[in-house]
Design a protein that fits this description.
Mig-14, 27% strand, 8 helices, Acyl_CoA_acyltransferase, single chain, 289 residues
């Protein structure tokens, strides 16, 4: 803690962190509501704040030396929740001149006044979903033709908010098993999360003859820094003859477009060939020395 004090940071409580986050903004990774949920499930976080002329102008939630929900932290207090780990927004006034006393490799955005938060030496790329006009007219027509064919065969897309948290979790778990061979870990904790934050899940899910057969789980977070939509995972019935994954991703790009032009829709890290088709890369920032 001595180094933090020398750098101008001081210990604070969760209430102070929440106040700063609400004032200056956050992403899903740094959202106080999700952090509070993890604390209630045993997470041991450390909160620090940076003061300027007696005012708190930045705050951080630290998990074993790392900024909370950073992908590179191999010793996270809580794992298995449907939270992103690839685009952390640090609650901070934009003109704050300081030095960060924690480790982080997955910071989203620019921090021009920070002495040691930079995009230099960073190779990690975040995958930001393309906007509809970024796709060719041919691609747009193909996607809409696939969806029309699916609907004509008894398929439909329904808003995720129209089903209960328990039905959503049960269906999501079953479809992950069909798609990946492994379902949701720690079901009890996730059941509590889904019930508490059902209103934060966004987009459409796919049904066929009234049965849920595809879920692209999206988490929507809003703060003064904007609207963040994070693609958590996707599960679907692999025996379906229709291209469920492709249709869901297209449908939800259309749904996210309804939120406005400034929304940030992240697919996580820029990995996998399919993301080259669906996303554009954006370099993440990191803390050095």
């Amino acid at each position: 803690m001595l180094i933090k004090k020398l750098l101008g940071w001081q210990q604070c409580d969760f209430a102070s962190y929440k106040m700063v986050a609400q004032r200056y903004g956050y992403s899903a990774e740094s959202a106080p509501d999700y952090i509070e949920f993890m604390i209630n499930y045993g997470a041991k976080f450390n909160f620090i704040a940076y003061y300027h002329h007696g005012e708190i102008v930045a705050a951080a939630c630290i998990d074993n030396g790392w900024l909370v929900n950073d992908f590179k932290n191999n010793n996270k207090s809580i794992v298995g929740l449907p939270l992103p780990v690839s685009g952390i927004v640090l609650p901070m006034r934009r003109d704050v001149f300081c030095c960060a006393p924690f480790k982080a490799r997955c910071l989203s955005g620019d921090y021009p006044y920070s002495l040691n938060i930079t995009k230099k030496f960073s190779k990690r790329l975040e995958a930001i979903a393309k906007k509809i006009p970024d796709f060719s007219k041919k691609t747009q027509q193909t996607r809409r033709r696939e969806i029309k064919k699916f609907q004509q065969s008894g398929g439909a897309f329904i808003d995720i908010s129209t089903i209960s948290a328990d039905v959503l979790l049960d269906s999501y778990d079953a479809l992950l098993k069909k798609r990946w061979g492994q379902g949701v870990t720690n079901l009890a904790m996730n059941q509590a999360f889904f019930r508490r934050f059902q209103h934060c899940f966004y987009g459409d899910i796919a049904t066929l003859n009234g049965q849920i057969i595809g879920i692209q789980l999206l988490l929507k977070t809003e703060s003064v820094r904007g609207i963040f939509v994070d693609f958590i995972n996707i599960g679907y019935d692999v025996t379906c003859e229709h291209p469920l994954g492709t249709m869901l991703m297209w449908r939800n790009i259309e749904r996210v477009a309804e939120l406005g032009a400034d929304v940030k829709y992240s697919y996580g890290f820029m990995s996998g060939e399919y993301k080259k088709r669906w996303c554009v890369p954006r370099l993440l920032s990191r803390v050095i020395f």
